[in-house]
Each structure stands twice: as C-alpha cells, then as structure tokens.
Amino acid sequence: MPITPYDMESEVCMGCGACAFVCPTGAIDPADFCSHEIEKIPNEFNCGIDSRTPIHIPFPQAVPNKPVIDRDNCVHFRTEGCGACKTICPADAIDYDMTDEFVEEEVGAIIVASGYEILDPGVFEEYGYGRYPDVVTSLEFERMVSASGPSDGVLTRPSTAKPPKTIVFLQCIGSRREVGGVEYCSKICCMYTAKHTILYKHKVPDGQAFVFYMDVRSAGKNYEQFVRRVM
Predict the structure, then answer these.
(1) 82 and 139 share a domain?
(2) CA 43/CA 49 separation, integer angstroms
(3) 178-179-181 Cα angle (round to 5)
(4) What is the pLDDT along the chain (231 residues), one digit of tens a residue?
(5) Among candidates 108, 105, 86, which has minimal Cα distance to 95?
(6) Count of domains in the chain?
(7) At which of 25, 54, 88 does a domain end?
(8) Domain boundary pick from 51, 69, 88
(9) CA 170/CA 199 separation, integer angstroms
(10) Range of the domain at 161
(11) Assigned domain for 128 exists
C-alpha cells in the first residue's frame, strides 16, 4: 500500500491548519490527514448556519474590531502545541498568557441594554424545527438575507440550495399561549415579519409570501403605514 507523507505524519499533526493557510492552491484540508478529530465550530453570530475559526472577530463592526482567540477550541490551549499564529504575527500582538480582566472607565452617561432570552423553537414540535432543514427562525432568516451573512445575502433553501419560490411566515410562536410559552405579545414579530417579507420579495421577485398570524399589532410611530405598504 503506498504511503504518502501526509499518512506518515498524521499522528503528529495537530490540525492547527497553518499549512492550509499558507498553501497558495487552497488544496490542503487538515481533516483529510490529521489523526485527531477536527470539529467545526458553529458561528454564534450567524446562529450556527456556518462555522468559524478559533481566531475570529465576533461580529461585524465589533468594538474593538479586533480578533479574539477561542480558548476552548484553539489547538494551542487544548494541546499546548501549535503556536503558528504567534509565530507568524508580524506585530507580535498575540500573548497566550493574557487573562480576562475588569477595566474601569469614567464616562458621562451609560446605556442600560438588558437584552433578551431567545426562545428555543425546538420545544414546539408541531412546527418541525430541527427535523426539517427549511424550517428556520427569524434570526436565522435575518442572517440568511444579510449581505454580511454566511451566504452574502443570497437567499436559498437549506435543503436544495435553490431560491424559495414560496415562503410562509408564522407569527406569535411562543407568545400569547397559556401553556408552553408566555401569555403576552412580543410586540416585535409583526414588524420584523413585515420587514422580512419585503426583503424576501427583493431577493426573490417572482416568489410568493404568506403570513399566518393571530392579530397584526403595529404598536409604534408609522408602523401601521409600513405594514399596509407591505400588504
């Protein structure tokens, strides 16, 4: 059986990807010859639609707009090997010994942004999320149509990679329910559904969009006019 150099060195390969980074042809994939399992890291900002590298910028326009190292997935921190990024960095900007720290700043004002918890759509089995690839959440759809998203704004069905000619938006999932959700209205799904409908028609002009809802609630200045324009 012929043995290639890759086969001979597969036991010592750490899967750091340094060779693939410098290969001018892009023909090297460490997963093809590395004896260690190389797992793809879901891109959290893109809702796991695509993957990211251990060294990455968390999201576009991040402040500061600088790369960070994911210690849990970096080969150096997992195996105490590699170090290719530190060796190749011309600015010597990588310090593996840095730790998290709290920094105090004096400012004139602060903005309290409490954020929100994302609903797990998998708890509502009747909608098939997680079973059918073409059932996606609104946040996933947002990233799919975004120019900075994983597909550069090209909208396709996950199952076929072709443009969806028909799309259905389901509102109030998890809201206004006495069991299995919350009893109150989210106050946002009507408006972002209207926005997504417009974005869909821009991406697929000959497509047909349907919206299933309990009530349309446009609680905001000029919101009603926007909804009527979409209709």
Answers:
(1) no
(2) 7
(3) 90
(4) 444 454 445 566 766 777 777 677 777 776 666 656 667 889 999 999 999 988 889 988 888 888 899 999 888 888 887 888 888 888 888 899 988 889 899 999 999 988 888 888 888 999 999 999 999 999 999 999 999 999 999 999 999 999 999 999 999 998 988 887 888 988 889 999 999 999 999 999 999 999 999 888 888 889 899 999 888
(5) 86
(6) 2
(7) 88
(8) 88
(9) 16
(10) 133-230
(11) no
Quick one: CA dihedral 87, 83, 42, 34, positive or negative?
A: positive
CA distance 52 to 68: 12
The encoded tokens of residue 2 equal 């012929």
Please check whether residues 219 and 153 belong to one and the same domain.
yes
Specify whether 213 is located in the same domain as 140.
Answer: yes
Gyration radius of the chain's alpha carbons: 23
Q: Which residue has the tokens 């170090």?
A: 83
Six-digit token string for 146? 């975004």
Nearest to 184 by CA among 192, 193, 175: 175
Judged by DSSP in three states, 143 sits in helix
Same domain, 137 and 226: yes
223 pairs with which residues across the strands?
Answer: none
